[in-house]
Amino acid sequence: MAPTKNRTLQILNAAAAGKYGVLAAIAYNVEQLTGLVRAAESRRSPLIIQLFPSTLKQLPTLAYAAAQAVKSATVPISLHIDHAQDEDHIREIMKTLPVDSIMVDMSHYDEKENLEKTRVLAKECHERGIAVEAESGRINGGEEGIADTGDLEALFTTEEDVESFISASIDILAPSIGNLHGDYPPSGPSLHYDRLESINAQVNNRVHIALHGTNDFSEETLQRCIRSGAIKLNVNKLLLEPWNVLMREKSGELPLVRLIDEGMDVLQKETEKWMDVCGSSGKA
Q1: Residues making up the binding site
Q2: What is the pTM of this model?
Q3: What pLDDT is recorded for position 154?
């Protein structure tokens, strides 16, 4: 697949060349989508909008709203489906929705089956111009919209994993380096930066690196991950927690329209802050 024709890969190619990171931000509703896009426009920053498969089923029109936002934006934005774990649903998504990239997450299968399923689905996606992300190793934990793998043994990404997934024709690799889906323990993240740096050197621009599990990250942690080679930064609670706090604290006090307005403003400001941290502000 020619990368210059795919919006997600165009965004990541530019980030790799410019040595900055790009937020790949989860949205659960149109209000959050609006806050994210406003931040991208305000900061003149690229952005990857992410939707979970569960959200597509809950709110079928949200993907079309996101696709329209991608089309009408004056900055580079793409639409990505995160952690797609059901093969039939992946095929339905690729055939019916206007998406730029899909994470084909077969990490709940054993290694051989994971790779084979990933290879087949990547070929089908590429035939439709859709870029593919996959998870090597196993990233423990769970969050809203993702199957909980907390009872499974974490498997760090190895050199062999990297080559195997690249040979499966993926475009974006999400390695396991001690990162967790969902919240970290009170001690905070314990990441193997040396492993990430080694993977980045091994990849040598053949695929892009995505980092999952950014809840509870400090600014310094995120920036170190970017310096170590991760340029697609998956963010969920990292951006949405101020929104969540506002909804919990003000939902019984404010009229609905004002609550929505304040929620979008809070999310926009938080997103703008992390775009500055990633170095993507002003790059569009």
Answers
A1: 83, 105, 135, 181, 212
A2: 0.93
A3: 59
